[in-house]
Specification:
With 140 residues, the protein is of the alpha+beta class. The protein has helices spanning 3-18, 40-46, 56-63, 98-108, 121-124, 126-138; strands at 28-30, 35-38, 66-67, 86-90, 111-115. A hairpin with a 4-residue loop joins strand 1 (28-30) and strand 2. The protein starts with a helix and ends with a helix.
């Protein structure tokens, strides 16, 4: 295995280990040099599972890929520490625990809304998400 391939494999392994034990993590595959992404099947089963009419490939360009380098990058100052934040907790989800999301929102002191949806409430419940965004904008 070449050094870049070993590096990609190591980062991918750390990514997979950092995720919950859910089946969706098996759907993360290398996607070009230095990137990983969910497979179309992974998108359908674990990302947009509440949107039956959506083809997984129609979500892929929006979802994109993860650049492996990002997993090692350090953030000097998170914007949520000094700026107002809003957070939509989507549950039940197959790829993240809603409890982890609620904890993240609490740490951010975010104004929170809950949605019974997959990872993409903006696609499955666009009116509710638009209302939440409008409310956030009006509060500034």
């Amino acid at each position: 295995m070449s050094p870049p391939a070993r590096q990609i494999a190591a980062v991918l392994r750390r990514l997979v280990e950092s995720l919950s034990a859910d089946a969706w993590r098996a759907e993360i595959k290398p996607y070009g040099e230095g990137y990983v992404a969910l497979t179309p099947d992974g998108v359908r089963k674990h990302f947009v599972q509440d949107i039956q009419r959506m083809k997984p490939t129609s979500c892929l360009p929006r979802r994109g890929r993860w650049r492996l380098k990002c997993f090692g990058d350090k953030i000097s100052t998170a914007a949520w520490r000094s700026k107002p934040s809003w957070y939509i907790v989507a549950a039940p989800r197959r790829n993240h625990s809603p409890e982890v999301e609620r904890d993240s929102a609490k740490r951010m002191r975010a104004k929170t809304s809950s949605s019974k949806s997959s990872h993409v409430p903006m696609l499955s419940q666009p009116a509710a998400v638009a209302e939440f965004i409008a409310s956030a904008a009006a509060s500034l």
